[in-house]
Amino acid sequence: MSQVTVKTYYSAAELAAMRLPMLPTSKGKVLAKAEREAWPSTEVTGIGGKRREYAPPAPVMVAIKEFVVKRLLTGGMHESEAVIEGAHCQNPRAHAAQGIHGENGKRALSHAEIGTGTEDGRQSGWHVSSLPGNSQPAQSVQHGITPASPGRVHGAAEPVKTSIGQARVPAAALTDRQRQIAEARAALLREVERIAQVVGREKAITKVVIMAQDGTLPEHLARLVPVANARSGTDGKRTLTRRTLYRWFNAYRPGDVRAVNALAPKDQQTAVRIPAWAPDLLAYFQVPQNVSLAWAVEQIAGKHGIDQDKLYHRARRFLDKMGNVERHAGRMGAREIKNIKPFVRRDSGMLWPGEVYTADGHSFDAEVAHPAHGKPFRPEITTVIDVGTRRAVGWSVDLAESGLAVLDALRHACEVGGIPTTFYVDNGSGYKNALMSAPGVGMESRLRFTMTHSIAYNSQARGVIERAHQTMWVRAAKELPTYIGAPMDAQAKQKIHKLTRRDIALAGRSKYLMPFNAFVAFCESKVDAYNNRPHRSLPMMFDPALGKKRHMSPNEAWAQGVKDGAQLAVVTQEEARELFRPQREAKVLRGEIRLFNNLYFAHELTEYHGDVVRVAYDIHNGDMVWVYDQQGRFICEAGFEANKRAYFPESYLDRNERKRIEGQLQRIDRKREDVVLAAQRGEKYIKALEDNPSPTLELMGALTAIEEVVPAEPIIPASNGRPIFMLESDRYEWLMQHRDAWTDGDRQFLTQFVSGDIYEGLRERFEALGLAWSGFDGNVLKVAV
Questions:
Q1: Cα(395)–Cα(476) distance, integer angstroms
Q2: pLDDT tens, 325-364?
Q3: Distance CA 655, CA 640 (A)
Q4: Taking the model in full, what pTM does it have?
Q5: Phi, psi of 155 (to 5 degrees)
Q6: What is the SS3 assignment for 541?
Q7: How far apart are CA 448 and CA 444, in angstroms?
């Protein structure tokens, strides 16, 4: 039958930590109770100085004993986490040798001392940490094992070498196997020390060795012998030797705070010895091309004179011992490797609704119909998210990312949720521009918010908006047949691409492309669905409909914040029209203001000649502008003047659209020049391209039908008034400009040409020139003469 004994004196902190029913749970109240009831006490000298320990009354001692037994039975403390101790030894010097007292009689620590009986009636003591609140596993107090930061051994401090070459390392740096072996060895050494108190260490070692060989050791110690030996084999022939025990004693120092750790064997997995070939291996392996290990080994095997197969397995074991992040250094760039490094989670729970907005643009991952010509394109969606509630307060859809798209999304956000205190965005051109941040005229200074930019190439810092893009827009794109994201099947993606282009060529539109107006309504429905869907980053609430708790939705979190007292600076549509008109500075000259090559005039500007004023304009209407002085006072409305470059006023958007079309025409002209130049170089050049395929081979291969190519010359009219065409595209352009001159031969030519690759390559040019193919309807055919 096991017998449990506990010590007599305890400190107030120990008693409070046990949380016994009849005692207070704070140190101060335990002290007050002990003084009030005059508990017997003694003064103990410890590491931090002197302290007073108390002997609780009998009822409390019974509760302490029950507490310790319960911890043992429930696994709160385990025998493998303790070291055998001579708890009933009456010799103080022996106590000091066993580590219960220090050199000057100082008690190491005050923990529960538990004695258990063995089969032969001898008492063995277990000295364990039994107090609640200990964050570290139960350790043997006399060995003073202190916790250390967990982690790989690569970054651990330099271990202290013992006389036999063992390393004393923090307990947390040991593996489970090392810890079990060290504790088993310490338990056997404690048994030797217990016997040595009577017969001396030499005879005690001899006795323990003989008992181990004869199998007469107590059962609990006999089970520890194979564990302490740390050798393979299960035949039971491996026992203890004098040399082994002396080696353990030589490494073991009871007064050392890391004594047990010194008994642990070396961990072969973490005891890394850098081989001579390792630097060369890493030089080939840690490169951004992400080469295979087999290739890297192949490059260095000959240099080091090692068989390639053997070196591969050595290299694999060497890399397995490296840290998971360290192994990818060089194979991942500075931005990519951030995805596997530790990060900081930002807490947005203290933010009020409307306090911090974050915004970003997203290229939609599906094609829709362009609002101008109906061709497939990917719209740009700008979304504004309230960080505190995750609500999408504003959004806009545009043809491409621009400052105007951001401005429209911000206008929508301010109308719905109010003007933010902070606007957190990236470093894109849509945010770092004069429209947003110019002093006096930028949105930041006019709306009185603070715009903060994240670190470049650090999208992890804006996880709120990036996650919203995945939830709203990536999911939405997958609902459309024209989805072109990476998860889309390559064959299906190619098929839908060809179908939409064929439909556009034949009918000018495709049933697979969502019209732009329908797409805008589609986006609005997705934003509404997102705002009403429970968000797992928001607090929990009880849902009566479900009968259980769930996370709040962004709309519910916003409404709760407003109910709790959030102050929103919401603007009306009338105010928004004035607030969100872009402004630029311009100089007044004789009552005129020049803006985007347009001249605006007002008599009220006469006295402002030579002054720089602020001019607000409407991006959709160029008929007038609104003029303010540098202090923001309104001066007048200036109307479009007749002495400007264009006869009719050109709005800001019209000007941008004209510039875009001019750029498209220039690119088409360059493409046409490339095609003509390739044709003039002859069939040999084209054949060389066919032998060496390139991205333009398909277009260039169509020109092989030209039997003979001659240098470009002026087009010579034929006898019937038709020019002599050197290229099929020239003939097509002339026919589209002279529809009344078509013949049956022209009809056959046009049918073949518009279905060929040359027409497809020059389609944008023909559309810009108004010569796009529209069919034969309404055309007069003539018979060739």
A1: 15
A2: 989 999 998 878 888 888 777 777 788 999 999 998 899 9
A3: 15
A4: 0.49
A5: -100, 10
A6: strand
A7: 6
